[in-house]
């Protein structure tokens, strides 16, 4: 069995085999789920900042109801898109094998991410979490960018 990275042409072969509409639907579901995840975290962060705004004051019921409603809606949206994503991926026997029988190696392969996502540990949420951290604490970029460059060269070279 061969090991190594999968060529882009192999990904295109998978996309053609699934059909372009279905492939677009899968990527759209992943994208919307991540938007809901990021929105969920940003909303929770904004909600916790209300403690500063309403310090030693009565918390208005209208603000509370709005916060709870949006928080719940984002949670439900996230749950629906996770469910849809898992329903779509049912029937994939072993997504870590390329059509030519090559085993996907390395943490940077899409199919490896897909396998981890199926097991209930969404890798794409890690990217969303990094985005939220960088948005809230821009100095974090001074640490994460050099680490990402080192990681890239360790994985590729």
UniProtKB/TrEMBL annotation:
* UniProt source species: Alosa alosa
Q: Where are the transmembrane segments?
A: 20-46, 66-84, 130-154
* Any GO CC annotation of this UniProt entry: membrane
Q: Which InterPro entries match?
A: ABC1_TM_sf (IPR036640)
Keyword Transmembrane helix attached: yes
A GO MF annotation of the entry reads: ATP binding
- Keywords, in A-Z order: Membrane, Transmembrane, Transmembrane helix
Name this protein carries in UniProt: Uncharacterized protein
């Amino acid at each position: 069995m061969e090991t190594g990275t999968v060529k882009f042409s192999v990904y295109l072969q998978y996309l053609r085999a699934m059909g372009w509409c279905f492939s677009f639907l899968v990527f759209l579901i992943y994208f919307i789920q991540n938007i809901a995840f990021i929105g969920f975290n940003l909303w929770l962060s904004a909600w916790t900042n209300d403690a500063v705004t309403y310090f030693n004051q009565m918390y208005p019921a209208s603000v509370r109801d709005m916060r709870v409603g949006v928080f719940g809606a984002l949670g439900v949206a996230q749950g629906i898109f996770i469910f849809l994503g898992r329903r779509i991926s049912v029937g994939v026997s072993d997504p870590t094998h390329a059509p030519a029988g090559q085993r996907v190696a390395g943490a940077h392969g899409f199919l490896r991410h897909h396998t981890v996502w199926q097991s209930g540990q969404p890798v794409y949420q890690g990217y969303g979490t990094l985005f939220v951290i960088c948005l809230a604490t821009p100095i974090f970029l001074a640490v994460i960018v050099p680490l990402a460059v080192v990681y890239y060269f360790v994985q590729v070279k």
